[in-house]
Amino acid sequence: MWAKINFIRQGLFVPPFLPGKRLHSQILSHSNSLSHRHFHKHLADTEKNKMKYVLVTGGVVSGLGKGVTASSIGVVLKACGLRVTSIKIDPYLNTDAGTMSPFEHGEVFVLDDGGEVDLDLGNYERFLDVRLTRDNNITTGKIYQSVLEKERKGDYLGKTVQVVPHITDAIKDWIESVSAIPVDGKEGPADVCVIELGGTVGDIESMPFIEALRQLYFSTGPDNFCLIHVSLVPVLGVVGEQKTKPTQHSVRELRALGLTPHFLACRSAQPLLENTKQKLSQFCHVPAANILNIHDVPNIWHVPLLLRNQNAHEAILKQLALLCVARPPNLEEWTTRAETFDNLTNSVKIAMVGKYVGLTDSYLSVVKALLHASIACSLKPSIEWIAASDLEDESAESAPEAHTKAWETLRNSACVLVPGGFGDRGVKGMILAAKYARENKVPYLGICLGMQISVIEISRSIVGWKEANSTEFDEQTSNPVVIFMPEGSRTHMGNTMRLGSRRTLLQSSDCITAKLYHNPEYVDERHRHRYEVNPEVVGDLEKTGLKFVGKDESGQRMEILELPSHPFYVGVQFHPEYKSRPGKPSALFLGLILAATGQLEAYIKTHQNGSI
Q1: Are 121 and 137 in contact (CB under 8 A)?
Q2: How much of the chain exceeds pLDDT 70, in percent?
Q3: Catalytic residue list
Q4: CA dist 239 to 204, 236, 242, 243, 328, Å?
Q5: What is the pTM of this model?
Q6: Across-strand partners of 293?
Protein backbone atom coordinates (compact mmCIF):
# COMPACT_ATOMS: atom_id res chain seq x y z
CA MET A 1 0.00 0.00 0.00
CA TRP A 2 2.75 2.47 0.97
CA ALA A 3 4.56 1.67 -2.27
CA LYS A 4 1.44 2.70 -4.18
CA ILE A 5 1.17 5.92 -2.19
CA ASN A 6 4.80 6.76 -3.04
CA PHE A 7 4.05 6.15 -6.70
CA ILE A 8 1.03 8.43 -6.40
CA ARG A 9 3.20 11.20 -4.90
CA GLN A 10 5.58 10.90 -7.84
CA GLY A 11 2.69 11.07 -10.30
CA LEU A 12 3.55 7.61 -11.66
CA PHE A 13 0.46 5.72 -10.51
CA VAL A 14 -3.15 6.63 -10.98
CA PRO A 15 -5.60 4.31 -9.26
CA PRO A 16 -8.53 2.96 -11.25
CA PHE A 17 -11.61 5.14 -11.02
CA LEU A 18 -13.85 4.31 -8.11
CA PRO A 19 -17.00 6.38 -7.76
CA GLY A 20 -17.05 6.51 -3.98
CA LYS A 21 -16.39 10.06 -2.79
CA ARG A 22 -14.80 8.80 0.44
CA LEU A 23 -12.17 6.72 -1.33
CA HIS A 24 -11.57 9.54 -3.79
CA SER A 25 -10.86 11.98 -0.97
CA GLN A 26 -8.62 9.45 0.85
CA ILE A 27 -6.46 9.04 -2.25
CA LEU A 28 -6.11 12.80 -2.63
CA SER A 29 -5.24 13.24 1.05
CA HIS A 30 -2.42 10.66 0.75
CA SER A 31 -0.79 12.78 -1.94
CA ASN A 32 -0.48 16.51 -1.61
CA SER A 33 1.58 16.65 -4.78
CA LEU A 34 -0.80 14.64 -7.00
CA SER A 35 -1.55 16.51 -10.20
CA HIS A 36 -5.28 17.22 -10.16
CA ARG A 37 -5.28 17.74 -13.93
CA HIS A 38 -3.60 14.36 -14.48
CA PHE A 39 -6.01 12.61 -12.14
CA HIS A 40 -9.13 14.13 -13.69
CA LYS A 41 -7.86 13.38 -17.20
CA HIS A 42 -7.52 9.75 -16.21
CA LEU A 43 -10.94 9.89 -14.56
CA ALA A 44 -12.45 11.27 -17.75
CA ASP A 45 -10.67 8.76 -20.02
CA THR A 46 -11.83 5.86 -17.86
CA GLU A 47 -15.42 7.08 -17.80
CA LYS A 48 -15.49 7.67 -21.57
CA ASN A 49 -14.40 4.09 -22.18
CA LYS A 50 -17.59 2.85 -20.52
CA MET A 51 -20.74 2.71 -22.63
CA LYS A 52 -23.44 4.92 -21.20
CA TYR A 53 -27.06 4.05 -21.89
CA VAL A 54 -30.02 6.42 -22.05
CA LEU A 55 -33.28 4.46 -22.20
CA VAL A 56 -36.42 6.22 -23.44
CA THR A 57 -39.73 4.50 -22.64
CA GLY A 58 -43.32 5.60 -23.18
CA GLY A 59 -46.48 5.43 -21.16
CA VAL A 60 -50.21 6.23 -21.21
CA VAL A 61 -50.66 6.22 -25.02
CA SER A 62 -48.60 5.55 -28.10
CA GLY A 63 -47.63 8.24 -30.58
CA LEU A 64 -46.34 10.68 -27.96
CA GLY A 65 -43.15 11.40 -29.89
CA LYS A 66 -40.68 9.09 -28.19
CA GLY A 67 -38.62 9.02 -31.38
CA VAL A 68 -38.31 12.80 -31.58
CA THR A 69 -37.59 12.93 -27.83
CA ALA A 70 -34.87 10.29 -28.10
CA SER A 71 -33.39 12.01 -31.17
CA SER A 72 -33.42 15.39 -29.42
CA ILE A 73 -31.68 13.97 -26.36
CA GLY A 74 -29.03 12.63 -28.71
CA VAL A 75 -28.68 16.05 -30.35
CA VAL A 76 -28.15 17.80 -27.02
CA LEU A 77 -25.60 15.23 -25.85
CA LYS A 78 -23.80 15.44 -29.19
CA ALA A 79 -23.75 19.22 -28.84
CA CYS A 80 -21.95 18.65 -25.53
CA GLY A 81 -19.09 17.01 -27.41
CA LEU A 82 -20.13 13.38 -26.93
CA ARG A 83 -20.38 10.74 -29.63
CA VAL A 84 -23.89 9.29 -29.77
CA THR A 85 -25.41 6.17 -31.29
CA SER A 86 -29.02 4.96 -31.21
CA ILE A 87 -31.00 1.74 -30.97
CA LYS A 88 -34.73 1.34 -31.60
CA ILE A 89 -36.52 -1.62 -30.06
CA ASP A 90 -39.78 -2.67 -31.74
CA PRO A 91 -41.63 -5.41 -29.83
CA TYR A 92 -43.53 -6.75 -32.86
CA LEU A 93 -42.88 -10.27 -34.16
CA ASN A 94 -41.99 -9.16 -37.67
CA THR A 95 -38.30 -9.61 -38.41
CA ASP A 96 -38.22 -6.10 -39.86
CA ALA A 97 -40.58 -3.38 -41.07
CA GLY A 98 -40.29 -4.37 -44.74
CA THR A 99 -43.54 -6.30 -45.09
CA MET A 100 -45.80 -4.00 -43.07
CA SER A 101 -48.38 -1.70 -44.65
CA PRO A 102 -47.55 2.02 -44.55
CA PHE A 103 -51.14 2.57 -43.35
CA GLU A 104 -50.42 0.48 -40.26
CA HIS A 105 -46.86 1.41 -39.39
CA GLY A 106 -45.87 4.46 -41.41
CA GLU A 107 -43.04 4.48 -43.90
CA VAL A 108 -40.33 1.85 -44.12
CA PHE A 109 -36.98 3.57 -43.73
CA VAL A 110 -34.05 2.03 -45.63
CA LEU A 111 -30.45 2.14 -44.40
CA ASP A 112 -27.15 1.98 -46.31
CA ASP A 113 -26.79 -1.74 -45.59
CA GLY A 114 -30.28 -2.45 -46.94
CA GLY A 115 -31.97 -2.75 -43.57
CA GLU A 116 -35.72 -2.05 -43.73
CA VAL A 117 -36.40 -0.45 -40.39
CA ASP A 118 -38.78 1.65 -38.35
CA LEU A 119 -39.23 5.29 -39.36
CA ASP A 120 -37.76 6.45 -36.03
CA LEU A 121 -34.32 5.41 -37.27
CA GLY A 122 -34.84 8.00 -39.98
CA ASN A 123 -35.36 10.57 -37.23
CA TYR A 124 -32.12 9.45 -35.57
CA GLU A 125 -30.15 9.73 -38.81
CA ARG A 126 -31.56 13.14 -39.67
CA PHE A 127 -31.13 14.62 -36.19
CA LEU A 128 -27.73 13.12 -35.40
CA ASP A 129 -26.32 13.01 -38.97
CA VAL A 130 -25.18 9.40 -38.55
CA ARG A 131 -25.49 6.23 -40.63
CA LEU A 132 -27.06 3.38 -38.73
CA THR A 133 -27.15 -0.34 -39.54
CA ARG A 134 -29.98 -2.83 -39.67
CA ASP A 135 -28.85 -4.14 -36.28
CA ASN A 136 -29.66 -0.76 -34.71
CA ASN A 137 -33.30 -1.84 -35.04
CA ILE A 138 -34.12 -4.72 -32.70
CA THR A 139 -37.41 -6.58 -33.08
CA THR A 140 -38.92 -9.50 -31.21
CA GLY A 141 -38.75 -11.45 -34.47
CA LYS A 142 -35.00 -10.89 -34.79
CA ILE A 143 -34.33 -11.91 -31.19
CA TYR A 144 -36.42 -15.09 -31.30
CA GLN A 145 -34.99 -16.00 -34.69
CA SER A 146 -31.42 -15.70 -33.41
CA VAL A 147 -32.18 -17.76 -30.27
CA LEU A 148 -34.00 -20.47 -32.22
CA GLU A 149 -31.14 -20.70 -34.73
CA LYS A 150 -28.73 -21.27 -31.84
CA GLU A 151 -31.07 -23.86 -30.38
CA ARG A 152 -31.21 -25.75 -33.69
CA LYS A 153 -27.41 -25.68 -33.94
CA GLY A 154 -27.14 -27.18 -30.48
CA ASP A 155 -25.71 -24.16 -28.68
CA TYR A 156 -28.13 -24.79 -25.81
CA LEU A 157 -27.84 -28.58 -25.96
CA GLY A 158 -29.37 -30.17 -22.87
CA LYS A 159 -30.93 -26.89 -21.72
CA THR A 160 -34.54 -25.87 -21.64
CA VAL A 161 -34.65 -22.71 -23.78
CA GLN A 162 -36.71 -20.05 -22.00
CA VAL A 163 -37.53 -16.35 -22.17
CA VAL A 164 -35.39 -15.88 -19.06
CA PRO A 165 -32.45 -16.19 -19.38
CA HIS A 166 -32.04 -17.01 -23.09
CA ILE A 167 -34.21 -14.33 -24.73
CA THR A 168 -33.24 -11.66 -22.22
CA ASP A 169 -29.55 -12.54 -22.56
CA ALA A 170 -29.85 -12.31 -26.34
CA ILE A 171 -31.38 -8.84 -26.02
CA LYS A 172 -28.62 -7.64 -23.69
CA ASP A 173 -25.88 -9.12 -25.89
CA TRP A 174 -27.42 -7.47 -28.96
CA ILE A 175 -27.58 -4.07 -27.28
CA GLU A 176 -24.04 -4.26 -25.96
CA SER A 177 -22.55 -5.38 -29.27
CA VAL A 178 -24.48 -2.96 -31.49
CA SER A 179 -23.86 0.02 -29.23
CA ALA A 180 -20.10 -0.50 -29.77
CA ILE A 181 -20.39 -0.13 -33.57
CA PRO A 182 -19.38 3.41 -34.68
CA VAL A 183 -22.01 5.15 -36.79
CA ASP A 184 -20.48 8.62 -37.19
CA GLY A 185 -17.58 7.73 -39.48
CA LYS A 186 -15.04 7.79 -36.66
CA GLU A 187 -13.13 4.92 -35.12
CA GLY A 188 -14.03 3.35 -31.82
CA PRO A 189 -17.36 3.08 -30.01
CA ALA A 190 -19.62 6.00 -29.13
CA ASP A 191 -19.83 7.51 -25.65
CA VAL A 192 -23.60 7.26 -25.25
CA CYS A 193 -26.20 4.91 -26.71
CA VAL A 194 -29.77 6.22 -26.73
CA ILE A 195 -32.23 3.30 -26.68
CA GLU A 196 -35.88 3.83 -27.53
CA LEU A 197 -38.30 1.12 -26.42
CA GLY A 198 -41.28 1.14 -28.77
CA GLY A 199 -44.83 0.64 -27.63
CA THR A 200 -46.25 1.51 -24.23
CA VAL A 201 -45.08 0.25 -20.85
CA GLY A 202 -47.38 -2.57 -19.77
CA ASP A 203 -47.79 -4.09 -23.24
CA ILE A 204 -47.44 -7.87 -23.12
CA GLU A 205 -45.03 -7.96 -26.06
CA SER A 206 -42.66 -5.51 -24.33
CA MET A 207 -42.14 -7.63 -21.21
CA PRO A 208 -38.98 -9.54 -22.28
CA PHE A 209 -37.35 -6.24 -23.28
CA ILE A 210 -38.29 -4.56 -20.00
CA GLU A 211 -36.75 -7.45 -18.08
CA ALA A 212 -33.61 -7.44 -20.23
CA LEU A 213 -33.22 -3.68 -19.75
CA ARG A 214 -33.73 -4.08 -16.01
CA GLN A 215 -30.91 -6.61 -15.97
CA LEU A 216 -28.76 -4.31 -18.14
CA TYR A 217 -29.32 -1.47 -15.67
CA PHE A 218 -28.27 -3.74 -12.80
CA SER A 219 -25.15 -5.03 -14.56
CA THR A 220 -23.89 -1.70 -15.90
CA GLY A 221 -24.35 0.20 -12.66
CA PRO A 222 -26.25 3.39 -11.80
CA ASP A 223 -23.60 5.72 -13.25
CA ASN A 224 -23.93 4.16 -16.70
CA PHE A 225 -27.70 4.04 -17.11
CA CYS A 226 -30.32 6.78 -17.37
CA LEU A 227 -34.05 6.10 -17.78
CA ILE A 228 -36.30 8.78 -19.29
CA HIS A 229 -40.02 8.03 -19.28
CA VAL A 230 -42.16 9.92 -21.81
CA SER A 231 -45.70 10.43 -20.62
CA LEU A 232 -48.81 12.45 -21.38
CA VAL A 233 -50.18 15.23 -19.19
CA PRO A 234 -53.64 15.90 -20.65
CA VAL A 235 -56.03 18.73 -19.95
CA LEU A 236 -59.69 17.81 -19.71
CA GLY A 237 -61.87 20.29 -21.52
CA VAL A 238 -64.45 20.59 -18.76
CA VAL A 239 -62.05 21.03 -15.86
CA GLY A 240 -59.17 22.79 -17.62
CA GLU A 241 -56.65 21.27 -15.20
CA GLN A 242 -53.41 19.48 -16.13
CA LYS A 243 -53.98 15.89 -15.04
CA THR A 244 -51.08 13.91 -13.53
CA LYS A 245 -52.92 10.67 -12.75
CA PRO A 246 -52.15 8.95 -16.11
CA THR A 247 -48.43 9.59 -15.58
CA GLN A 248 -48.63 8.36 -11.97
CA HIS A 249 -50.18 5.08 -13.10
CA SER A 250 -47.63 4.70 -15.91
CA VAL A 251 -44.69 5.24 -13.55
CA ARG A 252 -46.22 2.82 -11.04
CA GLU A 253 -46.41 0.19 -13.77
CA LEU A 254 -42.78 0.81 -14.72
CA ARG A 255 -41.60 0.61 -11.12
CA ALA A 256 -43.52 -2.64 -10.63
CA LEU A 257 -41.47 -4.09 -13.49
CA GLY A 258 -38.21 -3.19 -11.74
CA LEU A 259 -37.31 0.08 -13.49
CA THR A 260 -37.44 3.46 -11.79
CA PRO A 261 -37.29 6.52 -14.07
CA HIS A 262 -34.64 9.13 -13.42
CA PHE A 263 -36.48 11.66 -15.61
CA LEU A 264 -40.00 12.31 -16.78
CA ALA A 265 -40.45 13.85 -20.22
CA CYS A 266 -43.98 15.19 -20.06
CA ARG A 267 -45.87 15.85 -23.27
CA SER A 268 -48.50 18.55 -23.04
CA ALA A 269 -50.18 21.15 -25.18
CA GLN A 270 -49.06 24.01 -22.93
CA PRO A 271 -46.03 24.38 -20.61
CA LEU A 272 -46.38 22.52 -17.32
CA LEU A 273 -47.52 24.56 -14.35
CA GLU A 274 -45.23 24.60 -11.34
CA ASN A 275 -47.80 22.89 -9.11
CA THR A 276 -48.16 20.13 -11.76
CA LYS A 277 -44.41 19.55 -11.62
CA GLN A 278 -44.43 19.40 -7.84
CA LYS A 279 -47.31 16.93 -7.86
CA LEU A 280 -45.55 14.69 -10.39
CA SER A 281 -42.35 14.87 -8.37
CA GLN A 282 -44.10 13.90 -5.16
CA PHE A 283 -46.12 11.00 -6.50
CA CYS A 284 -43.64 9.64 -9.07
CA HIS A 285 -40.51 9.92 -6.89
CA VAL A 286 -38.66 12.00 -9.48
CA PRO A 287 -36.88 15.25 -8.51
CA ALA A 288 -38.71 18.32 -9.81
CA ALA A 289 -35.53 19.37 -11.64
CA ASN A 290 -35.67 16.09 -13.58
CA ILE A 291 -39.21 16.63 -14.83
CA LEU A 292 -38.79 17.83 -18.40
CA ASN A 293 -41.64 19.42 -20.28
CA ILE A 294 -41.89 18.87 -24.02
CA HIS A 295 -44.91 20.97 -24.84
CA ASP A 296 -46.21 21.66 -28.33
CA VAL A 297 -43.85 23.77 -30.44
CA PRO A 298 -44.07 25.34 -33.92
CA ASN A 299 -41.63 22.78 -35.36
CA ILE A 300 -39.71 19.79 -34.03
CA TRP A 301 -36.36 21.56 -34.28
CA HIS A 302 -37.37 23.43 -31.13
CA VAL A 303 -37.36 20.21 -29.07
CA PRO A 304 -33.56 20.03 -28.52
CA LEU A 305 -33.71 23.71 -27.58
CA LEU A 306 -36.50 23.00 -25.08
CA LEU A 307 -34.33 20.34 -23.45
CA ARG A 308 -31.30 22.63 -23.41
CA ASN A 309 -33.28 25.48 -21.87
CA GLN A 310 -34.41 23.17 -19.06
CA ASN A 311 -30.78 22.12 -18.43
CA ALA A 312 -31.66 18.55 -19.30
CA HIS A 313 -28.11 17.99 -20.53
CA GLU A 314 -26.61 18.84 -17.14
CA ALA A 315 -28.96 16.52 -15.28
CA ILE A 316 -28.41 13.66 -17.74
CA LEU A 317 -24.63 14.14 -17.72
CA LYS A 318 -24.68 14.16 -13.93
CA GLN A 319 -26.68 10.93 -13.87
CA LEU A 320 -24.15 9.34 -16.26
CA ALA A 321 -21.09 10.76 -14.44
CA LEU A 322 -20.03 12.60 -17.61
CA LEU A 323 -19.99 16.18 -16.39
CA CYS A 324 -16.20 16.14 -16.27
CA VAL A 325 -15.82 15.24 -19.97
CA ALA A 326 -18.62 17.30 -21.54
CA ARG A 327 -18.80 20.92 -22.60
CA PRO A 328 -21.78 23.31 -22.65
CA PRO A 329 -24.03 22.43 -25.61
CA ASN A 330 -23.47 24.33 -28.83
CA LEU A 331 -26.85 24.50 -30.54
CA GLU A 332 -26.42 27.68 -32.58
CA GLU A 333 -27.17 25.88 -35.85
CA TRP A 334 -30.35 24.36 -34.42
CA THR A 335 -31.47 27.69 -32.99
CA THR A 336 -30.94 29.43 -36.33
CA ARG A 337 -32.79 26.70 -38.21
CA ALA A 338 -35.78 26.67 -35.84
CA GLU A 339 -36.10 30.45 -35.80
CA THR A 340 -35.61 30.76 -39.56
CA PHE A 341 -38.44 28.33 -40.23
CA ASP A 342 -40.74 30.14 -37.79
CA ASN A 343 -40.12 33.45 -39.56
CA LEU A 344 -40.69 32.22 -43.11
CA THR A 345 -43.80 33.69 -44.73
CA ASN A 346 -43.71 32.58 -48.37
CA SER A 347 -44.57 29.02 -49.34
CA VAL A 348 -44.46 26.73 -52.35
CA LYS A 349 -47.34 24.42 -53.30
CA ILE A 350 -46.25 20.84 -53.95
CA ALA A 351 -48.71 18.27 -55.29
CA MET A 352 -47.95 14.92 -53.66
CA VAL A 353 -49.75 12.27 -55.71
CA GLY A 354 -49.60 8.97 -53.83
CA LYS A 355 -51.32 5.82 -52.68
CA TYR A 356 -51.05 6.27 -48.90
CA VAL A 357 -51.97 9.94 -48.44
CA GLY A 358 -54.43 9.01 -45.70
CA LEU A 359 -51.45 8.69 -43.32
CA THR A 360 -48.74 11.30 -43.81
CA ASP A 361 -46.22 9.19 -41.87
CA SER A 362 -46.30 6.86 -44.89
CA TYR A 363 -44.15 9.44 -46.67
CA LEU A 364 -42.32 10.88 -43.66
CA SER A 365 -38.85 10.99 -45.26
CA VAL A 366 -40.26 12.58 -48.43
CA VAL A 367 -41.99 15.23 -46.32
CA LYS A 368 -38.76 15.93 -44.42
CA ALA A 369 -36.75 16.11 -47.65
CA LEU A 370 -39.23 18.64 -49.05
CA LEU A 371 -38.93 20.61 -45.81
CA HIS A 372 -35.12 20.64 -45.98
CA ALA A 373 -35.16 21.73 -49.63
CA SER A 374 -37.83 24.40 -49.15
CA ILE A 375 -36.03 26.00 -46.21
CA ALA A 376 -32.84 26.12 -48.29
CA CYS A 377 -34.89 28.24 -50.72
CA SER A 378 -36.29 30.38 -47.86
CA LEU A 379 -39.76 28.90 -48.31
CA LYS A 380 -42.22 26.85 -46.32
CA PRO A 381 -43.47 23.69 -48.05
CA SER A 382 -47.21 23.60 -48.61
CA ILE A 383 -47.84 19.95 -49.44
CA GLU A 384 -51.11 19.33 -51.26
CA TRP A 385 -52.01 15.68 -50.68
CA ILE A 386 -53.76 14.07 -53.63
CA ALA A 387 -55.02 10.50 -53.52
CA ALA A 388 -53.94 9.12 -56.90
CA SER A 389 -57.22 7.22 -57.33
CA ASP A 390 -59.16 10.51 -57.12
CA LEU A 391 -57.56 11.64 -60.40
CA GLU A 392 -58.81 8.61 -62.31
CA ASP A 393 -61.70 8.83 -64.74
CA GLU A 394 -63.65 6.23 -62.76
CA SER A 395 -63.75 8.49 -59.71
CA ALA A 396 -65.59 11.17 -61.75
CA GLU A 397 -68.66 8.95 -61.49
CA SER A 398 -68.15 7.33 -58.08
CA ALA A 399 -66.81 10.41 -56.25
CA PRO A 400 -67.25 13.50 -58.45
CA GLU A 401 -66.47 16.04 -55.70
CA ALA A 402 -63.19 14.32 -54.79
CA HIS A 403 -62.33 14.01 -58.49
CA THR A 404 -62.92 17.71 -59.15
CA LYS A 405 -61.01 18.78 -56.05
CA ALA A 406 -58.05 16.52 -56.88
CA TRP A 407 -57.66 17.98 -60.37
CA GLU A 408 -58.13 21.53 -59.12
CA THR A 409 -55.39 20.94 -56.51
CA LEU A 410 -53.05 19.46 -59.12
CA ARG A 411 -53.50 22.38 -61.50
CA ASN A 412 -52.91 24.95 -58.75
CA SER A 413 -49.62 23.39 -57.58
CA ALA A 414 -46.19 24.66 -58.54
CA CYS A 415 -44.71 21.17 -58.94
CA VAL A 416 -45.66 17.50 -58.86
CA LEU A 417 -44.07 14.66 -56.91
CA VAL A 418 -44.99 10.98 -57.31
CA PRO A 419 -43.32 8.92 -54.54
CA GLY A 420 -42.72 5.18 -54.26
CA GLY A 421 -45.31 2.52 -53.59
CA PHE A 422 -46.42 -1.03 -54.36
CA GLY A 423 -49.51 -2.51 -56.00
CA ASP A 424 -51.76 -1.28 -58.79
CA ARG A 425 -54.17 0.87 -56.79
CA GLY A 426 -54.01 4.48 -57.96
CA VAL A 427 -51.57 3.79 -60.81
CA LYS A 428 -53.93 5.24 -63.45
CA GLY A 429 -54.12 8.47 -61.48
CA MET A 430 -50.35 8.66 -61.16
CA ILE A 431 -49.99 8.22 -64.93
CA LEU A 432 -52.43 11.07 -65.48
CA ALA A 433 -50.47 13.29 -63.05
CA ALA A 434 -47.18 12.51 -64.82
CA LYS A 435 -48.78 13.24 -68.19
CA TYR A 436 -50.19 16.54 -66.93
CA ALA A 437 -46.76 17.62 -65.61
CA ARG A 438 -45.01 16.61 -68.85
CA GLU A 439 -47.45 18.30 -71.21
CA ASN A 440 -47.80 21.49 -69.15
CA LYS A 441 -44.09 21.92 -68.35
CA VAL A 442 -44.76 21.63 -64.60
CA PRO A 443 -41.66 20.53 -62.60
CA TYR A 444 -41.94 16.81 -61.91
CA LEU A 445 -40.01 14.40 -59.68
CA GLY A 446 -40.80 10.69 -59.79
CA ILE A 447 -39.27 8.47 -57.14
CA CYS A 448 -39.01 4.69 -57.63
CA LEU A 449 -42.58 3.87 -58.72
CA GLY A 450 -42.83 7.52 -59.81
CA MET A 451 -40.01 6.96 -62.30
CA GLN A 452 -41.63 3.76 -63.60
CA ILE A 453 -44.90 5.66 -64.01
CA SER A 454 -43.07 8.16 -66.25
CA VAL A 455 -41.76 5.36 -68.45
CA ILE A 456 -45.23 3.84 -68.78
CA GLU A 457 -46.84 7.20 -69.58
CA ILE A 458 -44.29 8.18 -72.24
CA SER A 459 -44.44 4.68 -73.76
CA ARG A 460 -48.20 5.02 -74.15
CA SER A 461 -48.46 8.68 -75.10
CA ILE A 462 -45.41 9.21 -77.31
CA VAL A 463 -44.05 5.83 -78.44
CA GLY A 464 -47.60 4.66 -79.13
CA TRP A 465 -47.56 1.43 -77.11
CA LYS A 466 -51.11 1.65 -75.80
CA GLU A 467 -50.72 -1.53 -73.74
CA ALA A 468 -47.40 -0.51 -72.19
CA ASN A 469 -47.31 -1.42 -68.52
CA SER A 470 -45.33 -2.85 -65.66
CA THR A 471 -45.50 -6.60 -65.13
CA GLU A 472 -46.29 -5.71 -61.51
CA PHE A 473 -49.69 -4.47 -62.67
CA ASP A 474 -50.22 -6.67 -65.75
CA GLU A 475 -48.12 -9.80 -66.16
CA GLN A 476 -49.57 -10.46 -69.63
CA THR A 477 -48.93 -7.00 -71.12
CA SER A 478 -47.71 -7.03 -74.72
CA ASN A 479 -45.36 -4.12 -73.98
CA PRO A 480 -43.59 -4.80 -70.66
CA VAL A 481 -41.65 -1.57 -70.20
CA VAL A 482 -41.09 -2.27 -66.50
CA ILE A 483 -40.15 -5.81 -65.51
CA PHE A 484 -39.45 -7.96 -62.46
CA MET A 485 -35.78 -8.00 -61.56
CA PRO A 486 -34.07 -11.32 -62.39
CA GLU A 487 -32.65 -11.79 -58.88
CA GLY A 488 -35.96 -11.09 -57.14
CA SER A 489 -38.00 -13.69 -55.29
CA ARG A 490 -41.62 -14.46 -56.10
CA THR A 491 -42.11 -16.71 -53.07
CA HIS A 492 -40.72 -14.55 -50.23
CA MET A 493 -41.57 -10.88 -49.69
CA GLY A 494 -39.28 -9.92 -46.83
CA ASN A 495 -35.79 -8.62 -47.63
CA THR A 496 -35.91 -9.84 -51.25
CA MET A 497 -35.80 -6.49 -53.04
CA ARG A 498 -32.85 -4.50 -54.32
CA LEU A 499 -32.08 -2.72 -51.10
CA GLY A 500 -29.61 -0.27 -49.63
CA SER A 501 -26.93 2.02 -51.00
CA ARG A 502 -26.09 1.36 -54.66
CA ARG A 503 -23.90 3.26 -57.08
CA THR A 504 -25.31 5.19 -60.03
CA LEU A 505 -22.92 6.29 -62.79
CA LEU A 506 -23.84 9.61 -64.37
CA GLN A 507 -23.70 9.27 -68.15
CA SER A 508 -23.19 12.96 -68.90
CA SER A 509 -22.25 16.15 -67.10
CA ASP A 510 -24.65 18.07 -69.34
CA CYS A 511 -27.84 17.18 -67.49
CA ILE A 512 -29.81 18.74 -64.65
CA THR A 513 -29.13 15.88 -62.25
CA ALA A 514 -25.34 16.04 -62.67
CA LYS A 515 -25.39 19.80 -62.15
CA LEU A 516 -27.51 19.52 -59.02
CA TYR A 517 -25.11 16.92 -57.59
CA HIS A 518 -22.24 19.27 -58.55
CA ASN A 519 -20.91 17.11 -61.40
CA PRO A 520 -19.58 13.94 -59.77
CA GLU A 521 -18.85 10.79 -61.77
CA TYR A 522 -21.29 8.82 -59.66
CA VAL A 523 -23.74 9.10 -56.76
CA ASP A 524 -24.52 6.59 -54.02
CA GLU A 525 -28.18 6.51 -53.05
CA ARG A 526 -30.46 4.04 -51.27
CA HIS A 527 -32.81 1.73 -53.16
CA ARG A 528 -35.94 -0.29 -52.41
CA HIS A 529 -37.52 -1.94 -55.44
CA ARG A 530 -38.10 -5.27 -57.17
CA TYR A 531 -39.13 -3.95 -60.58
CA GLU A 532 -36.99 -1.99 -63.04
CA VAL A 533 -37.10 -0.43 -66.50
CA ASN A 534 -36.87 -3.08 -69.20
CA PRO A 535 -33.41 -2.54 -70.79
CA GLU A 536 -34.75 -3.83 -74.12
CA VAL A 537 -37.00 -0.79 -74.59
CA VAL A 538 -34.45 1.88 -73.65
CA GLY A 539 -33.46 2.53 -77.28
CA ASP A 540 -37.06 3.12 -78.37
CA LEU A 541 -37.73 5.38 -75.39
CA GLU A 542 -34.66 7.52 -76.01
CA LYS A 543 -35.78 8.12 -79.61
CA THR A 544 -38.63 10.18 -78.11
CA GLY A 545 -36.17 12.57 -76.46
CA LEU A 546 -36.22 10.87 -73.07
CA LYS A 547 -32.69 10.41 -71.72
CA PHE A 548 -31.47 7.89 -69.18
CA VAL A 549 -28.70 9.99 -67.66
CA GLY A 550 -27.87 7.60 -64.81
CA LYS A 551 -27.23 3.85 -64.94
CA ASP A 552 -25.82 1.24 -62.61
CA GLU A 553 -22.30 -0.12 -63.00
CA SER A 554 -23.46 -2.85 -65.41
CA GLY A 555 -25.11 -0.28 -67.67
CA GLN A 556 -28.26 -2.43 -67.77
CA ARG A 557 -30.22 -0.83 -64.95
CA MET A 558 -31.77 2.57 -65.59
CA GLU A 559 -31.38 4.76 -62.51
CA ILE A 560 -32.17 8.33 -63.63
CA LEU A 561 -34.26 9.69 -66.49
CA GLU A 562 -34.73 13.25 -67.73
CA LEU A 563 -36.61 15.08 -70.45
CA PRO A 564 -34.15 17.68 -71.79
CA SER A 565 -37.01 19.59 -73.47
CA HIS A 566 -38.71 20.05 -70.08
CA PRO A 567 -37.74 22.65 -67.42
CA PHE A 568 -37.49 19.89 -64.79
CA TYR A 569 -38.73 16.38 -65.46
CA VAL A 570 -36.68 13.86 -63.48
CA GLY A 571 -37.34 10.28 -62.46
CA VAL A 572 -35.05 8.23 -60.22
CA GLN A 573 -35.16 4.55 -59.33
CA PHE A 574 -33.57 5.23 -55.94
CA HIS A 575 -34.95 7.07 -52.90
CA PRO A 576 -33.00 10.33 -52.43
CA GLU A 577 -35.19 11.28 -49.47
CA TYR A 578 -33.47 8.78 -47.17
CA LYS A 579 -30.21 10.74 -47.15
CA SER A 580 -31.63 14.25 -46.91
CA ARG A 581 -30.56 16.10 -43.75
CA PRO A 582 -31.42 19.44 -42.13
CA GLY A 583 -28.98 21.90 -43.62
CA LYS A 584 -27.97 19.32 -46.26
CA PRO A 585 -31.01 18.94 -48.54
CA SER A 586 -31.17 16.22 -51.17
CA ALA A 587 -29.94 17.58 -54.50
CA LEU A 588 -33.00 16.38 -56.43
CA PHE A 589 -35.54 17.71 -53.93
CA LEU A 590 -33.69 21.02 -53.96
CA GLY A 591 -33.85 21.00 -57.77
CA LEU A 592 -37.61 20.40 -57.68
CA ILE A 593 -38.24 23.37 -55.37
CA LEU A 594 -35.83 25.59 -57.31
CA ALA A 595 -37.60 24.72 -60.56
CA ALA A 596 -41.03 25.28 -59.00
CA THR A 597 -40.02 28.80 -57.95
CA GLY A 598 -38.09 29.76 -61.10
CA GLN A 599 -34.67 29.70 -59.40
CA LEU A 600 -33.14 26.58 -60.95
CA GLU A 601 -31.35 28.20 -63.88
CA ALA A 602 -29.80 30.90 -61.69
CA TYR A 603 -28.71 28.31 -59.13
CA ILE A 604 -26.98 26.18 -61.76
CA LYS A 605 -25.25 29.19 -63.32
CA THR A 606 -24.07 30.38 -59.92
CA HIS A 607 -22.66 26.94 -59.14
CA GLN A 608 -20.92 26.72 -62.51
CA ASN A 609 -19.30 30.07 -61.79
CA GLY A 610 -17.87 28.61 -58.60
CA SER A 611 -19.82 30.85 -56.23
CA ILE A 612 -21.45 27.97 -54.35
Answers
A1: yes
A2: 90
A3: 448, 575, 577
A4: 33, 6, 9, 10, 41
A5: 0.88
A6: 266
